[in-house]
Amino acid sequence: MPTDKTGTEAAVSAAEGKYTIAVDGEPVGLAAVADRGNQRVFYHTEVDERFGGRGLATILVAEALEATRADGKRVVPLCPMVAAFIRKHPEFDDITDKATPELLRWVETI
Fold first, then answer.
1. E strands within the chain?
2. Of 11, 41, 59, 69, which has the most beta carbons under 10 Å away?
């Protein structure tokens, strides 16, 4: 189990339409996703401000991207946090797609 910058364990789990991160069993953040064909669209990420600065968003995104790879899906990073993470971690370039205008319109219907 990964640990945040304070050394506290953080658990990431998948649920319908999102990945969540919990600290000491308390959910403190999420990455909202929507699957479309072979793509998983990441459109929003947030961590409770009380837990800011601990690296939890980074843990959440890293685990969610690994799970997406394991699921055989491609990533579309609409969320700025996810896009920034991928820019810093080119090991995910091989599963990353750019958003198309059609996909952007589709996300607005979610």
1. 10-15, 18-23, 26-36, 39-47, 74-77
2. 41
* Cβ atoms < 10 Å from Cβ of 58: 18
State pLDDT tens for residues 5-14.
999 999 999 9
Spatial neighbors of 65 by CB under 8 A, at least 6 apart, are 75, 82, 85, 86, 89, 92, 95
Decide: 8 and 51 in contact? Cβ < 8 Å: no
CB 19 within 8 A of CB 12: yes
What values do phi and psi take at 92, rounded to 5? -100, 0
pLDDT tens, residue by residue, 52-85 = 999 999 999 999 999 999 999 999 999 999 999 9
In the prediction, which pLDDT does 110 show? 86
Distances from the Cα of 97 to the Cα of 30, 38, 68, 73, 100, angstroms: 21, 11, 13, 10, 9
How many helical (H) and strand (E) elements, i.e. helices and strands, does the chain have? 3, 5
Q: Report whether pLDDT(1) > 90.
A: no
